[in-house]
Amino acid sequence: MTSFQKRVFSGVQPTGTLHLGNYLGAIKNFVELQKEFECIYCVVDQHAITVEQNPKELRSNTLEVLASFIAAGVDYKKQIIFQQSSVAEHSQLAWVFNCVSRIGWLNRMTQFKDKAGKNRENVSVGLMVYPNLMAADILAYLATHVPVGDDQKQHLELSRDIAQKFNNDFKVDFFPLPEPLIYGNATRVMSLRDGTKKMSKSDASELSRILLTDSDDDISSKIRKAKSDSDLIPEDKDQLQNKHECLNLINILSACLDQSIEKTLAGYAGKEYSKLKNDLADTLIQVVGPVRKEIRNLLDNKDELNKILQVGSEKASTIAGPIIKEVYKIVGFR
Ligand code: TYM
């Protein structure tokens, strides 16, 4: 059995300003993991075009996601941060994986079903084969650990299936089976307007999400208007099961304070929502405020950001290049 070096890979789509779900579910963990692992973080612009994008906005969103990584604390000097479309190996491996992966597997992807909806015959082929590209992103670096939010779990399982099938088909022990790292108290941050729906960039209501670029006033007002109920806050976690909005607020506060849900809940049991909301707004202002300021500073110097991407892409190619060469030999291209 080949022993694989521990290596972290993850990606974020440049499809709009990042929100609290992206931050607490993924980017906060990116920052922590860099203490222990070699980390590669990618702005996945090729994923973004699986649905229609405005080219000018795509370009500026790419820099904004990069700025958000750095503002949140990713160390671009020690780790690799780069843009997917600059490293051709992702597309090269994705094609090989298009031929390893099965249509039946892709048909089962719930995110594809949700996004395509009734329009299935008319969405891009890219939207369907998206998980194959995601597997290629990870495996072009033989990455072993992948920090993501809960919504990416099924895609990660597919990446493991593809790695396993490639190894079996070609009778090699080449790809590791990448492990999802889904942890913390906010693996699935929910909409502030509907606790049964995921917080998302595409929700029509601005009030449903906190953006990393929101002002302190925006944060306070969105939290004040967050949906809740007329009861007092319950005493224990089990009573939260059907109180989706309350659970979401408690989860977000616990994640921001890095403490257990039980401990957070103990501070509010039997109290009204107003106290929880005031404290949550103050905490979020402390968490998001410095990130917002740093994003603004970084975006003032776009040349510098473009340089960071260029250096990152060169470093990424140095790792992915020899791996894809090996893959090409295994499949018989060379
Ligand atoms: P994307 O761009 O939709 O989201 C980026 C990261 O944020 C997490 N996330 C959330 N976490 C908690 N609560 C939420 N409401 C929430 N919304 C989003 C996502 O789980 C993700 O970790 N397919 C990926 C991007 C990708 C990728 C990869 C990830 C492409 N290639 C390879 C890992 C490895 C996506 O669309 O993430």
Short description, anyone?
The protein has 334 residues and is mainly alpha-helical. It folds into 2 domains: 7-187 and 302-331, Rossmann fold; 206-296, Tyrosyl-Transfer RNA Synthetase (Orthogonal Bundle). It has helices at 20-33, 45-48, 55-72, 89-100, 103-107, 110-116, 125-139, 153-169, 216-225, 244-257, 261-266, 273-299, 302-331, and strands spanning 7-12, 38-43, 80-83, 145-147, 179-181.
Strand-helix topology:
Layout: E1 7-12, H1 20-33, E2 38-43, H2 45-48, H3 55-72, E3 80-83, H4 89-100, H5 103-107, H6 110-116, H7 125-139, E4 145-147, H8 153-169, E5 179-181, H9 216-225, H10 244-257, H11 261-266, H12 273-299, H13 302-331
Parallel strand pairs: 1-2, 2-3, 4-5
Helix pairs in contact: 3-12, 4-7, 4-13, 7-8, 9-12, 10-12
Tryptophanyl-5'AMP binds at residues 9-13, 21-22, 25-26, 44, 47, 134, 137-138, 146, 148-149, 151-152, 155, 187-189, 198-199.
Q: What is the CATH class of the largest domain?
A: Alpha Beta
The CATH architecture of the largest domain: 3-Layer(aba) Sandwich
Class from secondary-structure proportions: mainly alpha
CATH homologous superfamily label of the largest domain: HUPs
Instruction: Note the beta-strand portion.
Output: 5-15%
Helical content stands at 40-55%
Bound molecules: tryptophanyl-5'AMP
Largest sheet: 3 strands, parallel
Number of separate strands: 5
